[in-house]
Amino acid sequence: MKVAKFGGSSLANATQIKKVGEIIKSDPERKFIVVSAPGKRHQTDTKMTDLLIQMGNSYLNGLQYETNLKLIMDRFTEIIEELNLSNELLIEFETMIKTVLNAEQSNADKLDAIKAIGEDSSAKIVSAYLQSMEIDAHYINPLDAGIIVSDEPGNAQILPGSLAKIYTLHEKDGVLVIPGFFGYTEQGKLTTFSRGGSDITGSIIAAGVKAELYENFTDVNSVYSVNPNIVNDPKEITILTYKEMRELSYAGFSVFHDEALIPVIKEKIPICIKNTNNPDAKGTFIVSEREVKEDECVSGIASDTGFCSLYVSKYLMNREIGFGRKLLGILEAEGISFEHAPSGIDDMSVIIRERNISPSKEAIVINRIKEELHPDMVSLHRGIAIIMVVGEGLVNTIGVAHKAIAALTEARVNIEMINQGSSEVSMMFGIQSTDMDRAIKSIYNAYFVKK
Amino acid sequence: MKVAKFGGSSLANATQIKKVGEIIKSDPERKFIVVSAPGKRHQTDTKMTDLLIQMGNSYLNGLQYETNLKLIMDRFTEIIEELNLSNELLIEFETMIKTVLNAEQSNADKLDAIKAIGEDSSAKIVSAYLQSMEIDAHYINPLDAGIIVSDEPGNAQILPGSLAKIYTLHEKDGVLVIPGFFGYTEQGKLTTFSRGGSDITGSIIAAGVKAELYENFTDVNSVYSVNPNIVNDPKEITILTYKEMRELSYAGFSVFHDEALIPVIKEKIPICIKNTNNPDAKGTFIVSEREVKEDECVSGIASDTGFCSLYVSKYLMNREIGFGRKLLGILEAEGISFEHAPSGIDDMSVIIRERNISPSKEAIVINRIKEELHPDMVSLHRGIAIIMVVGEGLVNTIGVAHKAIAALTEARVNIEMINQGSSEVSMMFGIQSTDMDRAIKSIYNAYFVKK
């Protein structure tokens, strides 16, 4: 039994929804379907969820919202007409929107209810379309599915106990189509997850029904081993572990909403990233454990810019018990989360995302460090890029670090930082942002291009 | 004007003291002389300070101490007779010992006073011997020299204000011979520094008199670029910066007492390590800043065994603000000082000296981590060796890390950890202790052996 989740691009228009129909029809194991709201039809298009948010904000601010409403209804009309579905759905959607707008509730709750209309309508459309294909499909509301969440509008958390309720979905016949992105509080109030939360619904349903496979349909054939904007036609990844996925997504790979994976990871359910536009492509499997071939110890190379390094040096620092903790404590007190804090003997570097430390915050932090820790030197250096070389085979493979470092040296890249060994599945390099593309190409060639 | 400090091996017997006399005579700039107690004359000999401590403990425990006293006086007798000095010195030393033993004071203070006799007698012997060479030499007691310290027996700290007093030593004529290792409290009570504290005295005197050079006479021609027990006839280091010295001494190089250097570092006084047995050898200069030649970016390779790695892994660790601080806080609360704490995305490794975490402490710490931080995994791995590659030229030299890593790969050494970039003058590698000698030889060859 599989759970298949379709993202926004898979539901952007009738053509896409027809593909979704074929995909569901082609495999009777696809019993639980989770859908996003209609996404962009083309580069400059607006997502349904954004149209809904604009309408909601206009309404709440007493501005005219009818233009937005018309745009929304036009998109639904286009989809429903092209799919030859009943106009009654349109009437249902418009009634639903107006009911929500007029309901007596807090602004936060109303906005949540408005946002959820995209996914909810998607599920109803897909369900109706599957029925028109003579599939025994049923729309299931998240309340009926058992998705019980905390009362945190826009950031709901699944409550313990939900999974057992969700498991009872097995008792229902046919294909069940469930809208992503929202659940209901114990008091029965609709509440949404954080943005991108359809992945959360998919993951919860997969964990709840104990699926054999959680299929995540997107618009790419697979996860690539490196950013295709830097390296042309990179190798597709066929299998990854959860840990590898997580390390890759940290530094630029954005296939998944990280938190979303927690339920499937706990249940060790394999995930498959597949392409709605090319369902025959094998996709990328993400699993709990995998076999590692000796010559394929690296799975992928991720990279991200926008880091800075806070450098603190003090003679005999390492004799001063608690120095590192005090330094990190200052950052925490100033609300600055840090990424890594490698230390030398009398030196410590703290890697921080530049967006997390404004120039004014920088001045405050440097002042506090000077006054509270009396260092010999403290400085902050911006414009750093991070490269993550990720692979389950990294640990215990002799020479794997050598390959990356030789590649960086060959590309004449100065290595500002190497952090290897703290993670079992990755090595991290810090370089100047301006060197990044050159560095990535060289490392990619070293691991992936046969010579 | 130079301060010359002579270590125990330079004062072990009359032959050595004669060399010291020649060294002082050969350079009129050597005005301030700091001496240790007589050291070992041969491998199995006992240092004078240890004889004194044994005697003191016997006395304090009501045991017979006369055998020790005889051994002590025999050594002094041998030295004084061979140097043809007056027997009055012997009478003075024996009287001093008896006075100290019989004095009304706490055990800690008495032990300090007993320990200090080694250095004090050394200074008197050297002063008398220099006079016999017709040098205008004077013994100066630390009280008269202005070495005023805190009242912490066995761990005295120099008090602010001492340096100004010490500067007035310039007003005295001739060569001044000052015993190392102890000072006096503001109440006039003799108190010793921590063991090896003659280096502290030398450094304080050098800083106080604002010496042009602080000469530290030992029994080696220079600091070597690598442990001579691992690599035969290694390259001698001619110049090092304070920072390089510190990083090297962290991992096995034991030329200096780290704290001892603080006063000279603050005053930016150059240090020269020289050999009493071969004073014509240039020695190793240790300076504040130095020029770096492009092909000599590495100064030395230090190594040390006896480390372990505490590994903690938790999905989404890096989203959890304060996780690292909490982990280090547990170690601090358990009194465990750590060396480094490199972190990955969802992983953190803490490098700890094995002697600092007993198996029972390990169990407590792992339990607390499990209960307080709920990690996915926590484990401790012993038997790790650390290699430090040290050099002022490391920063901004492309390919320098490559050389070390290529050497480790060539030697088939698995690299457990790389920490580069947190220090500007060192790279740190973690490997299995069993691989250490092989690893060191290979890295040494890569940087120091012309091919």
Structural class estimated from helices and strands of chain A: alpha/beta
CATH class of the largest domain in chain A: Alpha Beta
Number of helices of chain A: 15
Q: Biggest protein-protein interface?
A: A-B, 65 and 65 residues
Give, in spatial order, the strands making up the sheet with the most strands of chain A. Answer: 3-4-2-1-7-11-12-10
- Report on the biggest sheet of chain A: 8 strands, mixed
**Oligomer classification:** homodimer
- Summarize model confidence as the mean pLDDT of chain A: 92
> How widely separated are the two ends of chain A?
43 Å
Q: How helix-rich are the residues of chain A, as a percent range? A: 25-40%
Structural features, described:
The structure is a homodimer of 451-residue chains. The first copy, chain A, has two domains: 2-210, Carbamate kinase (3-Layer(aba) Sandwich), CATH 3.40.1160; 300-448, VC0802-like (2-Layer Sandwich). The first copy, chain A, is 37% helix and 21% strand. The first copy, chain A, is built from 15 helices and 17 strands. In chain A, the strands form four sheets. Chain A has an eight-stranded mixed sheet, with helices on both faces. A five-stranded antiparallel sheet of chain A has the order 14-13-15-17-16. A two-stranded antiparallel sheet of chain A has the order 5-6. In chain A, a hairpin with a 5-residue loop joins β5 and β6 (190-192). The longest helix of chain A is centred in the N-terminal third of the chain and has 17 residues, at 66-82. The radius of gyration of chain A is 25 Å and the shape is globular. Chains A, B: This is Aspartokinase. Chains A, B: GO terms for molecular function: aspartate kinase activity; ATP binding. Chains A, B: One of its GO terms (cellular component) is cytosol. Chains A, B: Catalyzes the phosphorylation of the beta-carboxyl group of aspartic acid with ATP to yield 4-phospho-L-aspartate, which is involved in the branched biosynthetic pathway leading to the biosynthesis of amino acids threonine, isoleucine and methionine.
